[in-house]
DNA sequence: TTGAAAGCGTTACCAA
DNA sequence: TTGGTAACGCTTTCAA
């Protein structure tokens, strides 16, 4: 920066102001800009953050970057935060709470303006770390009873219950559930819980549950899970899957066996992934607005940052919509 | 840090050394650690970077985070770089060179130890920026004739040619190609180029090309593209798609029309996505080791960082393997 | 509108 | 093994 200042014949402060877009005469601004371009000067963000006491980072932690649901959420966050001059520090927890804790600790070192987490289950140390740091927190994809700070999401339990009611309304009584074997995917567990609560409420058979495959359960797990379900309960009329991915795998297994979907067996998914709209038969699912969760979270973050210096109030919980999307498969 | 030092009864320097894992007596180390825990002290990364002159960031730019190919590459990078204490600064260029330029400029502000880019097409300004910065660069997913610095990937042109030969060996003469309409997906363009070169070399019809949909072409585009191809060249025997995603959409369209794959028409994909292995019929494809590209890129980065202080040599180009994977669809 | 000085929290370097 | 001092490159603050 000294080099730029020297070349432009001004002080460092003037260079700093020009870069920040603050008041400066047009002539000065131009000379400084010319010097910047000539030298290819790029300001050091670490020095800026240290000096001003505020970084431009927002930390985002998702369980898996390869799930389109979560990468859509990241896109939504990007769309809102980037225009504010904020940068995303993205981390992938791999569904592991310990890894989340390590990543939170690591990201805290960069003094992020806010931290966006997925879900509401965190280690005690993670919560303590966040509380102590004083950094605003948004929990996404769930509506925890006691959020750390802010939350943007929906009740996976209730969304799953709605799908059960949809299937029951279609006349199905013997309904199965296909989910992952691991308890780490809390949203998956909540959907299973919703299945169990609603089948009980409706007086339906609650036992037809197959849990198979590590989080995140992918389409590869759908087929063996379906096979297992059919071998244990051959008279099953409808199957609800923890996601469209597993539903797709399940439907493929049905096709291999010559079972018609939905004539012989109905199959429903969850999450409204692109595959469910394209495949044949198309998959009845629950749409959840993954991108919108990111957007809303971004808006909550911007509001919280504004409130910090403006003294305004912040929204604590934002409920995002979900809806059963009837298609061909159920 | 002063607080920790005071509480532990040592100097700031000792605290710094304990945190860096440098020489310190066991007793001191323990007292300092206790103070750190008690105060919940988290070191400021910006100050550390400023002082030491080196950050712990590696910047990674991919065209799209929601493509499993690229998120697999990011996983590969993470697996290698995280154990080295490096952190990924991930950016999504959305296939736009201008956006890439903006992101490169932004990431350069954080003084990354290395920058990993996707592909070999960049704006002149991007190249200039990178050259001036002196930061090591890895270009992934391609083998440019003149890499900026290092490169890890394979020739998409040659990989596509191999698929054409595979289809020709199966006896197909009238082969079509389904790709995206935009020129931004350079890997897609290279695959099309490979298709055209090899069909010409084999004396086959080169005109059966349908380009439809923005980058990245997804499964939703496969169906209309297939429909277009069939309406223009109804006697097509085999179709090669720019990715498994579009191949899947194309196959769905065939099923809707009652066309049997591969009996009536063969369909091949590219990239070995999970869907190709699960769906029915399973999709013949070209496997490309997306995760391995990330790993190798990570190793190249570690080597380059080591070479910087060790004086060793760095690998310039790393060729990653690809192979036609015969399945049911072609 | 511009400039000078102080200081942000850490690490490098040298001395004890 | 430990501590003091300077310095990293910028922004804040105050003064001109």
Automatic annotation (TrEMBL), chains A, B:
The keyword Transcription regulation applies. Keywords: DNA-binding, Transcription, Transcription regulation. SUPFAM superfamilies: lambda repressor-like DNA-binding domains (SSF47413), Periplasmic binding protein-like I (SSF53822). CDD domains: HTH_LacI, PBP1_GntR. Pfam families: LacI, Peripla_BP_3. This is LacI family DNA-binding transcriptional regulator. Residues 1-52 form the HTH lacI-type domain. It comes from the Bacteria. One of its GO terms (molecular function) is transcription cis-regulatory region binding. It comes from Paraburkholderia acidisoli. Gene3D superfamilies: 3.40.50.2300, lambda repressor-like DNA-binding domains (1.10.260.40).
